Amino acid sequence: FLVPPPSSFGPGPHRVRFSVRVSNKPISGNFVAEMAPLDEMPHAVHLFLEQVYHGLWDNTWFYLNGPHVMQAGPQDWDGTEEENENAALKKFQETQLDTLSFPEYSHNFPHVPFTMGFTGRPGGPDFYINKANNTEPHGPGGQFQHDLEEQADPCFAKIVEGHTFLQEKIFSSPTYGEETDYAYFMIEPVEIVSVRIIQPNMKELDGQGQQQKQQQAEIRAETLVQGATVIAAGGTPKIAKVSPQFNAEAAHHHHQ
């Protein structure tokens, strides 16, 4: 596979703006997250930026408000539980941007308050915001329920704007009790209305702007590989077309 390098979004620092709505009200507020440096967390950062770039986090939810984390995911609150899970994950799975290829981690970017990490192994699509210092419980050796205890949750971003809004409006959201079947699930989930990549000295890209940028990237990517013989079968050269998408399958081959 020919894979666009992690710097295809630029050298960074990369920032994204979350617009969220509380309890079905108009957009209640925003916060901004800055991605980890590319030399620390290239795979996790690129996956999340690709998810944002393709609009996958629009109309998703913060749905779990635990003592130490606030978790978000592609949940859907209409229909049966099984239908919701399938519908919510479908757009992530169709683009092959639902999980990391491996649980990337850097000791230089630990799970301190107001950082963001992917859940599970190898990680994603759900992510969480650390409400406390989770360096040890979410770092290497802190997750005993997984097969490889020495692995850690990927920590890939930090909140740089909107701390007060998060603390007063989001972290304080009421939840079901610890003794219930829905422990720490939010009674009224907080909708992530949109997530957009923002860049210094540039306007925030709206949906149409991101679509135009996607088309330009596809043209550039196709041009780069024209005339490049990457596969030969029966003596007949074939041309492989490269997608600008840095998907999970491509990432797997890139890191082998």
Q: Can you put this structure into words, describing what you see?
A:
The chain has 256 residues and is an alpha+beta fold. The chain is built from five helices and ten strands. The strands form two sheets. Strands 1-2-7-5-6-4-3-8 form an eight-stranded antiparallel barrel. A two-stranded antiparallel ribbon has the order 9-10. The longest helix has 19 residues. It starts with 14 loop residues before the first strand and ends with a helix. 31% of the residues are buried. The N terminus and C terminus are likely disordered.
- Euclidean distance between termini CA atoms: 11 Å
Helix content: 10-25%
Mean of the pLDDT scores?
76
Order of helices and strands: EEHEEHEEEHEHEEH
Helical/strand content category: alpha+beta
Number of helices: 5
What is the subunit arrangement here?
A: single chain
- CA-based gyration radius: 19 Å
Query: What sort of overall outline do the alpha carbons produce when their principal axes are compared?
Result: globular
